[in-house]
Write a structure and sequence with these properties.
Radius of gyration: 23 Å
Shape: globular
Strand content: under 5%
Distance between the termini: 28 Å
Helix content: 55-70%
Largest sheet: 3 strands, mixed
Strand order of the largest sheet: 1-4-5
Order of helices and strands: EHHHHHEEHHHHHHHEEHHHHHHHHHH
């Protein structure tokens, strides 16, 4: 589940907006004019290339065709060449260093563009090499299908979609079958590993040329995050979640062992219902998937978002209502804003009618409503996007949680046959999902950090050491395989995953704020949003309207009255 932001958000009109920004102490109208002139020229040069990249990226992921990926690579190279323009960057740096910009929105726009261009101040060949290699690996992801032995097939093998892999891991009671499919899905890592290792080295080389210790450190700084503060936050999350997670996993392990007729001590990663154990195994009394088996998930999403006055009809139209799995299409899900003018936001998906995809579609359409659709047109285009990756992930997570709530389903007109069983299962799954996902995010953050800090180490060992420590899964005996390479984000969205967890913290804080402000201090657990247009009004005023005029923590304070912290999140999973 991912919000894709390709290329650059662009500056159109530079109106004076106030928000929470304050003018410079040494304000200078001349400095502001220079900044505006730079931003205007920047927009005219970059916008057409940016839109071309976005469309090429979409076509490549929708078709999987080599020519589409070549077009994507060519478009990205042209955009990168413009962003890497040394004269343009020198002019921008002079404006930024001189200060004196008396319009706080213009100043913020200059700061944002500076961070964007800094990453591209490399020689053209290095940029092109990274784009080419990343493009080749993404093509492998898009076209990979797990292969298992099948005597009825022409070549002796059957290809499985991602959905089919998940179905086997969720429903099969045969450990051998589960292992076969799990291992087949991990073959993607073997295909990706050679290119990924080269890409990691190239990324580190680029970071060091720009004065950073490594690519991981660079990406954090460019996204306005402090690496030391991030680790402190995740250390605190580790403390808050470790004991509750141990108890939750113990209960899950009992059910998994029963289902597959194995000892708890013999449970392996392929017993956990999803290839990475980032979701709750479906082992409890009620089968939530049955609820959605006969439902139109797109209609449910359309009706829900209309009801809170954040309609997604144009997004569905622009996607061409093409949400079913098919050959050549990227097998995952994401949202992307093509033009940044509110007219072309799209969602890629591969829907199977189950709870996972209900949650996923609420999530991706959550990204969609937090986009240029609901960010004011008066904002400069460079600031006409989410405040940060973590805030758009937080909004998506805020809405996705409803897929496990009976009150939401019934208010949406979906009958639940066994309410008591559903409530018991859904409450447990919601709580356990927060815990399980938290531990999975620990793995991703700490593995990527370690990989970029020392890419020459045994990465297979680093991966499984981290999985064992934070997810408490047992590594398969004698297994030394690049399983880390089968996770898309490590290639296509590097140094991203920690933002999902920070998004969960943001989602909890915003949800609690809505319960206070919109629902008059109601219990957050009772609030579903269905049919309440005040929820949409709250989201526009406190989350969407500022766009990127605020940093992520400024927006968190604006929306919730407090800095980002684990407190509301801990309350949601019943922690301290």
């Amino acid at each position: 589940m991912l919000s894709i932001r390709i290329g650059i958000a662009l500056v159109a009109c530079m109106g004076a907006l106030s928000w929470a920004l304050t003018p410079s102490a040494n304000a200078d109208a001349g400095a502001t004019k220079k900044a505006r002139d730079f931003l205007d020229a920047f927009t005219r040069r970059i916008r057409p290339l940016d839109i071309t990249v976005n469309r090429a990226w979409w076509d490549a992921n929708m078709t999987g065709k080599p020519e589409a990926f070549k077009a994507k690579e060519d478009a990205q190279n042209k955009l990168d060449a413009l962003l890497a323009d040394k004269q343009q960057f020198a002019e921008l740096k002079t404006i930024k260093d001189a200060g004196g910009i008396d319009d706080p929105v213009v100043k913020r726009a200059i700061d944002v563009v500076y961070l964007l261009l800094l990453e591209k101040q490399l020689d053209t060949k290095l940029l092109e090499d990274m784009t080419k290699l990343g493009n080749e690996i993404e093509s492998i992801f898009t076209n990979f299908r797990a292969k298992i032995k099948d005597t009825d097939a022409k070549d002796g093998f059957k290809k499985l979609t991602d959905g089919e892999v998940r179905k086997v891991l969720k429903t099969s009671t045969l450990s051998e079958r589960r292992q076969e499919v799990w291992e087949a899905s991990k073959e993607l890592g073997r295909e990706v590993e050679p290119g990924l290792k080269k890409l990691v080295k190239l990324r580190n080389e680029a970071a060091k040329r720009l004065g950073f210790a490594n690519f991981h450190a660079m990406q954090l700084q460019l996204s306005e995050q402090n690496g030391n503060d991030l680790i402190k936050l995740f250390d605190r999350l580790d403390e808050l979640t470790r004991e509750p997670f141990i108890k939750a996993k113990a209960e899950i392990d009992i059910e998994l062992a029963k289902a597959c007729n194995v000892r708890i001590a013999d449970l392996m990663p392929w017993h956990y219902h999803d290839p990475f154990f980032q979701e709750v195994p479906a082992v409890f009394k009620a089968d939530l998937d049955k609820i959605y088996a006969q439902q139109d998930l797109i209609k449910l999403c359309r009706d829900f978002y209309r009801g809170i006055d954040l309609p997604i009809d144009l997004v569905i139209e622009k996607t061409g209502n093409d949400f079913a799995p098919r050959e050549g299409k990227n097998p995952h899900a994401f949202c992307t804003d093509i033009t940044r003018d509110g007219t072309d936001v799209r969602v890629l998906a591969n829907i199977v009618p189950n709870e996972y995809w209900m949650s996923t579609m609420l999530h991706e359409f959550g990204h969609a409503v937090y986009s240029s659709i609901n960010i004011p047109a008066k904002l400069p285009y460079v600031l006409r996007s989410e405040s940060h990756i973590l805030t758009t992930e937080g909004v998506a997570m805020l809405f996705e949680k409803n897929s496990k709530r009976r009150a939401w389903l019934e208010q949406m007109g979906v009958k639940v046959d066994d309410p008591k069983a559903f409530d018991e299962t859904a409450a447990k799954m919601s709580r356990y999902q927060l815990l399980i996902f938290s531990r999975w995010c620990q793995v991703m953050l700490r593995f990527e950090k370690g990989m970029y800090e020392n890419p020459e180490q045994d990465l297979n060992k680093l991966w499984w050491d981290t999985v064992e420590k934070y997810q408490m899964l047992r590594r398969p005996t004698g297994r030394s395989a690049p399983d880390y390479g089968s996770k898309y984000h490590i290639v296509g969205a590097p140094v991203y995953y920690h933002n999902y967890m920070m998004g969960e913290l943001f989602a909890s804080q915003v949800h609690h704020a809505i319960a206070r402000k919109v629902y008059a201090n109601a219990d957050p657990a009772s609030v579903t949003y269905v049919g309440n247009k005040q929820v949409g009004a709250f989201m526009r005023q406190y989350v969407f309207d500022p766009g990127r005029t605020m940093t992520w923590n400024e927006l968190t304070r604006h929306a919730t009255g407090a800095d980002l912290s684990p407190e509301a999140f801990a309350k949601d999973f019943g922690g301290k």
